[in-house]
Amino acid sequence: MTWNESLPLLVLASSLVPGLIIFCLAEESKGLRTALNLVGVVLKLLLVAVMVWGVEQGQSYEVRFPLLPGIDFVLRADALSMFFALLSAVLWLATTIYAIGYLEDSPKRNRFFGFFSLCVTATLGVALAGNLVTFLLFYELLTLATYPLVVHRGTQVSLRAGRVYLAYTLTGGALLLAGIAWLHALAGNLEFTAQGFLSGLVQDHSAALVAIFVLLIAGLGAKAALVPLHGWLPQAMVAPAPVSALLHAVAVVKAGAFGIVRVVHDVYGFEVVAQLGVAGPLAAIAAVTIVYGSLRALFQTDIKRRLAFSTVSQVSYIVLGTAIAGPVATVGGVAHLVHQGLMKITLFFCAGNLAETLGIHRVEDLRGVGRRMPWTMAAFTLGALGMIGVPPMAGFFSKWFLASGGLDVGQPWVIAVLIASSLLNAAYFLPVIWTAWFRAPPETWPAERAPARGETSLMLLLPTVLVAASALGVGLLASMPFSPLQWVGLIVDVEYAP
Amino acid sequence: MTGASLDAWLLLLIPSAPLAVACALMLWPTRRALTLLAPWAALPALACALGLAPPLEIDLPWLLLGTQLGLDHTARIFLFFTAFLWLAAGVFATGYLQEGDGRARFFVFFLFAMAGNLGLIIAGDMLSFYASFAMMSFASYGLILHNRTAEAGRAGRIYIVMVVAGEVLLFAALILAAAAADSLLFADVPPALAEAPTRDVVLALAVAGFGIKLGVLGLHVWLPLAHPVAPTPASAVLSGAMIKAGLLGWLRLLPLGEGPALEGWGLLLMAVGLLAVFYAAFVGIAQRNPKTVLAYSSVSQMGLVTTAIGLGLAVPTRWPEISAIVLFLALHHALAKGALFLGVGMAASRFAAGRYRWLVAAGLVLPALALAGAPFTSGGLVKALLKPEAMALPAPWGAPLAALVSWTLVGTVLLMARFLYLAWPSGASAGAPSARASSGYSLAVPWATLIAALLLSAFTSGLAGAEAVWTWSAVLSGVATLALAAACTALAGWLLAKVDWHRIPLPASGDLVVPVERGLASLLRTSARALHDLRYRLSGGEAAAKSYLTTLRRLLAPAVSIEGGWAPACTMFLALLLLLAAISAT
Amino acid sequence: METPFADSPWTVWAVFTPMIGAVAAFLWPRRAALVGCLATLATVGSVFWLIWQVAQLGPQYHAMGGWGAPLGIDLHADGLSAAMLLTTALVGAGVTLYATAYFQQATETARFFWALWLLLWSAMNALFLSGDLFNLYVTLELVGVASVALVALAGNSDALTGAMRYFLLSLLGSLTYLLGVALLYGAHGTLDIGLLSDLVTPAPADWAATGLMVAGLSIKTALVPLHFWLPPAHAAAPAPVSALLSALVVKTSFYLLLRLWLELFPVTAPGFGQVLGLLGALAIFWGSFQALRQARLKLLVAYSTVAQIGYLFLAFPLALTTAAATAWAGTVLFILSHALAKAAMFLAAGNILKFAGHDRIADLGSGSPGIALSWAAFGIAGISIIGLPPSAGFAAKWLLLQASFASGQWWWLIPIVGGSLLAAAYMFKVAGLAFLPNDQGDQGDPKAAGARLSRRMKWTALGFALGALAMGFATPQILALLDSGTPFAQLGAVGVL
Amino acid sequence: MSATLLYAITGSGLFVLGLYALARHAHLLRKIIAVNVMGSGVFLVFGALAYRTPGLVSDAVPHAMVITGIVVAVSATAVALVLMLRVQSETGRPHLPEQPSD
Question: D2-91: what CATH class?
Answer without folding.
Answer: mainly alpha
